[in-house]
Amino acid sequence: AKRNGRQRSVFYEAGLGDATPEKPDPAAELAAALDRGEFTVAYQPLVDLRAGRTIGAEALIRWQHPVDGNRPPDTFIPLAEETGLIMEIGEFVLRDACRQAVRWVQSSSSPADLLVTVNLSARQVTDPTTVETVQAALADTGLEPHRLTLEITETVLMQDRDAAAANLDRLKAVGVRIAIDDFGTGYSSLAYLSRFPLDMLKVAREFVDGLGRDDNADVVTRAIVELARALGLRTVAEGVETDEQHRQLAELGCDFAQGYLFSRPVDAETIMALVAGESAE
Ligand code: C2E
Ligand code: CA
Ligand code: CA
């Protein structure tokens, strides 16, 4: 009620603290948000389809803007990428993810397969400092390298193949794992599957979405799971929303699944309870 009584416009509020309140500079706003601690990390459970339990989570950045509320990553990741601030934001997510995963391992009665996945942007994939950033995050938190999986889209891999390949080889040497995100949706070639040191394929939501309704989606999903199996890679189905999709993916032999059927991305305390609680079953 108090807030409504104020005559100050939202526009003016948004400009508070900026050098030019009439025209906030989005890049400066992003940097300030990082300094002010407006970013947090949400975790979406990763469900082991055979064991039927949560075995980890994907880390997803969240920006709680003081005026606009939650700003989805799609609205600011491209700008962060353009300005280079993604290196700092990415490190923030990486460190939080490693810290949380250590807590899961400590509190779980069956921690053997626990893992956390973190998205890498284009710049992180090709920048040579990323390897040191990852190593430092692991060393400072004490997370075992094999528990960290880095997610990279095929489009990003194909942008600067030589730099990406060199970096991925160095990351593999550190002991972390690599997943292809949104597999099957990018402009890519199957040749890269043998060229890059991969561990996991994430079946894009658009295929999972069509399961049971669209014959092509069924065929493509089956082919991806079989291709992954033949290459010795594990599979994660993304965006699982229905029991029918869940059933079909389990039947196909897909290893892991994520989606609103199981849980939306949740905060650190909630994922902690899910991982620890369900492991104790
Ligand atoms: P993504 O990596 O493909 O992440 C999956 C997105 O799908 C997430 O959206 C997640 O909340 C959403 N999702 C999960 N399950 C379902 C479902 O069952 N149905 C539907 N409709 N959606 C589902 P979010 O968190 O908004 O992230 C969007 C994208 O932003 C991510 O896509 C990723 O590309 C990027 N992103 C998020 N966090 C980071 C980060 O820390 N670093 C980088 N570089 N990119 C990030
Ligand atoms: Ca992802
Ligand atoms: Ca994805």
Structural class: alpha/beta
From N to C, what is the helix and strand string? HHHEEEHHEHHEHHEHEHHEHEH
Order of strands across the biggest sheet? 1-2-4-5-6-7-8-9
* First-last Cα distance: 47 Å
Estimated share of beta-strand residues: 15-25%
The rounded Rg comes to 20 Å
Bound molecules: ligand C2E, calcium ion
- Please describe the biggest sheet, giving its number of strands, its sense, and whether it closes into a barrel: 8 strands, mixed, barrel
Query: Which range best describes the helical content: under 10%, 10-25%, 25-40%, 40-55%, 55-70% or over 70%?
Result: 40-55%
Count of runs of 4 or more consecutive helical residues: 14
The gross shape turns out to be: globular
Tally of strands: 9
Low-confidence stretches: 1-12
The average pLDDT value, as a whole number, equals: 90
Description:
- With 281 residues, this protein is α/β, with parallel strands linked by helices.
- The chain has helices at residues 2-5, 10-15, 26-35, 77-83, 86-107, 122-126, 129-141, 154-159, 161-174, 192-195, 205-210, 215-231, 243-252, 268-279; strands at 39-48, 53-65, 69-71, 115-119, 148-153, 177-183, 200-203, 234-237, 256-257.
- Strand 1 (39-48) and strand 2 form a beta hairpin.
- It is globular.
- It binds ligand C2E and calcium ion (CA) (2 copies).
- Residues 44, 60-61, 72-74, 77, 90, 93, 119, 121, 181-182, 239-241, 258-260, 265 line the site of ligand C2E.
